[in-house]
Design a protein that fits this description.
Blueprint lengths: L3 E11 L2 E10 L2 E6 L8 E4 L4 E4 L1 E6 L1 E2 L2 E2 L7 H8 L5 E8 L4 H11 L10 E8 L21 H10 L4 E6 L6 H11 L2 E4 L6 H10 L3 E2 L15 H8 L4 E5 L7 H15 E4 L12 E4 L2 E6 L2 E4 L4 E4 L3 H11 L4 H15 L17 E4 L5 E6 L2 E5 L5 E2 L5
Parallel strand pairs: 1-4, 1-5, 6-9, 9-10, 10-11, 11-12, 12-13, 13-14, 14-15
Antiparallel strand pairs: 1-2, 2-3, 4-23, 5-20, 7-8, 16-17, 17-18, 18-19, 20-21, 21-22
Length: 394
């Protein structure tokens, strides 16, 4: 018989709103949600005083806890999967790219065996950030890593990844960009605009070709101008486009986050970390794309001041969106879990507390700190072990 877990008496962030209820998990799935469920033969987790929500989903992350997704060393993904539930994350996309075309293929082949690994947060596939980026908006990427888009090169990557590339960030204004968007969409992955110098019209042509998402809105893209709105105006005004934002308070100023939320609303705003391997560690220095970087507050920067990525983990981002956007935790779960699951193509089993969905659950205290995290029915992190009562032996 599959192992059963009963989460009792928490305030659950259900799709229709918050409700005090019990959640029964059997094996990796949620099998019942309601008041005072019978435990039968089940471990019982006392969630009194806790907020219970869907596990957080991060669709743009390069590593954390000392584990890097730019490395082909065995165990990087597995190590991260075991580390990140303490930050409330139960699934994620592996965001990566190699130093060259051959290097990207080798990296994908090396990392692919650990996609879908068990024992912690679930890696849902790859997010390829590059190499088809605009050199003028390359951010921290080395210029030698960048190339114009070709469908043939993308298909080589998708083959190397065993079809597990779920998202590709590219600049649609580049020659071949629209053809690439069509190829990405045909493969079943999500075409995302980012590191782009597109005009508003070029961005709209990208949307027509299949682009449906924008990578770290405001960062590494043409800024808003009163006579040329660029990708920002095009994306914010198109209701079919989701936009991810790094909500550490450094990548995007609080006022700009609030402005974006006013336009995007709770269904199109996707919270991501863009974490580097040093996130969640005591390290103050690392390297990215061959450049040394140093921690500056909640972000890492190159020597020239260029922001490279965030070191604020997903639970910190969750608390930031609640505070900065002045929203309740139930809405924050949409921004930090539900919408990310949709971007990753896992909305039929992730990002929501529903019958039949994966039992990916995070439990937060009144300060919105992570008390426990459940990955596919298993309590993989618990800061208060006294809340769990094991099922009586039969």
């Amino acid at each position: 018989m599959p192992r059963r877990l009963l989460i009792r008496n928490g305030i659950a962030a259900l799709p229709h709103g918050p409700s005090r209820c019990d959640i029964l998990c059997e094996g990796p799935r949620i099998v019942a949600i309601g008041g005072e469920l019978e435990d039968g033969v089940a471990d019982v987790f006392d969630a009194s005083g806790l907020t219970v929500g869907p596990g957080l989903v991060d669709v743009h992350v390069h590593g954390g806890g000392g584990f890097s997704f730019f490395s082909s060393e065995p165990g990087a993904i597995r190590g991260y999967s075991e580390w990140v539930p303490a930050r409330g994350v139960t699934s994620f996309l592996v965001s990566t790219v190699g130093p060259s075309a051959d290097g990207t293929e080798q990296l994908l082949r090396a990392l692919t065996p650990d996609i879908g690994c068990r024992g912690g947060a679930e890696p849902l596939g790859f997010h390829l950030e590059g190499p088809f980026l605009n050199p003028g908006r390359r951010g921290a990427f080395h210029p030698d890593m960048l190339r114009e888009p070709t469908r043939e090169e993308f298909w080589r990557y998708q083959e190397s990844a065993g079809g597990l590339i779920r998202q590709v960030t590219f600049a649609p204004e580049l020659h071949g960009g629209r053809e690439l968007a069509a190829a990405i969409t045909t493969s079943g992955a999500l075409a995302a605009m980012g590191h782009t110098d597109a005009t508003a019209e070029e961005a709209r042509r990208g949307f027509e070709a299949g682009v449906r998402h924008v990578t770290h809105l405001f960062n590494a893209m043409r800024p808003l101008h009163q006579r040329e709105g660029g990708p920002l105006a095009a994306a914010l005004l198109d209701r079919a486009i989701t936009c991810e934002l790094i909500c550490d308070g450094t990548h995007v100023a609080p006022d700009i986050l609030r402005l974006a939320y006013r336009l995007l609303g709770p269904n199109r705003f996707v919270t991501v970390t863009d974490n580097l391997q040093i996130a969640g560690t005591h390290s103050l220095a690392s390297e990215f794309a061959g450049f040394p970087v140093e921690v500056d507050g909640l972000a890492a920067r190159k020597a020239d001041g260029t922001i490279v990525g965030s070191v604020a983990t997903m639970d910190q981002h969750f608390r930031t969106v609640v505070d900065v956007l002045d929203i309740d935790p139930w809405t924050a779960f949409r921004l930090c879990a539900t919408n990310g699951a949709r971007v990753a193509g896992a909305q039929d089993r992730k990002g929501s507390l529903q019958h039949g969905f994966d039992a990916d659950i995070v439990l937060l205290n009144s300060d919105l700190a992570v008390v426990a995290t459940v990955c596919r029915g298993e309590v993989v992190y618990c800061a208060e072990p006294g809340r769990t009562v094991a099922a009586a032996a039969g």
